[in-house]
Structures are given as C-alpha cells and as structure tokens.
Amino acid sequence: MSEKAPGWKEIPIGGLIIHAGNSFEYETGDWRAERPVLDKEKCIDCLQCWIYCPDGSILVEDEKMAGFDYKHCKGCGICAHLCPVKAIEMISEEEISGVPVDEWGVKKPSPESKESEVK
After folding, report:
1. Does 98 fall in a domain?
2. Residue 59 domain boundaries
C-alpha cells in the first residue's frame, strides 16, 4: 500500500515547494536529446544556472558550480542559455562520446591548456 500524501495541516505555512515536481522521485534524464557540459575554465560560479534550472540538476559544492545531475536533467538548455560567460555547452547525446567529460559533465582540460599552465 502506498504512503498517504500529507494533508493541509502537515504542509508548511506559505506553501513551500519541498521538492521540484517529480524530478527527484523519478529518474527523468533518459528523456534528454542534448546534455549540458561545463567548461570549468570559463565558469565564474555565478550560479545563475542553479537558480533557473527547473529540474534541480545543477550540483553545487562550497558555493561553486560542481557539475550536473544527469539522472534528472532533461536537457532543456536553460542553463546554457543563461550562462553569462557561455561556460555551458549543449551537446547532442549522439555526439557526447567524442567529448572528454567526467561523470558530472565537467569538461576535462585539454592537453594544450595543461602545457600552457606549465610554461
């Protein structure tokens, strides 16, 4: 038997939205045609992406953008559109295998950028 939904007496005053829609109850990332990829070298950690993400899929650690929760990201592209420094790029799911990214969608530094840091 399923758990009973909270009644009006159990809901916080002011109508707080405890969870964004059904985005945490169901893994909805499989719907995506494109996925966001973060270029950490460009990111200024303004967190505009986090504020406007309708799915709560932006991961933040120590008040800095850490990556994406791909289990819940539907690939709407709002984060990429709003990014003031264009640090987020939307990449087709079909083309993502050719892009070096970690499990959180953060682009791995290119060998050229590592060489320039050493010099």
Report:
1. yes
2. 29-108
Count H helices and E strands in the chain, helices first. Answer: 3, 4
> How confident is the model over 6-53, as pLDDT tens digits?
787 877 777 666 665 555 567 788 888 999 999 999 999 999 999 999
Residues 69-89, buried b or exposed e (16+ Cβ, 10 A)? bbebbbbbbbbbeebeeebbb
Rounded Cα distance between 58 and 77, Å, is 12
Is residue 62 in some structural domain?
Answer: yes
CATH number for the domain harbouring residue 47: 3.30.70.20
Altogether, the residues listed in the chain come to a count of 119
Residues 6+ apart with CB under 8 A from 32: 70, 73, 74, 75, 93
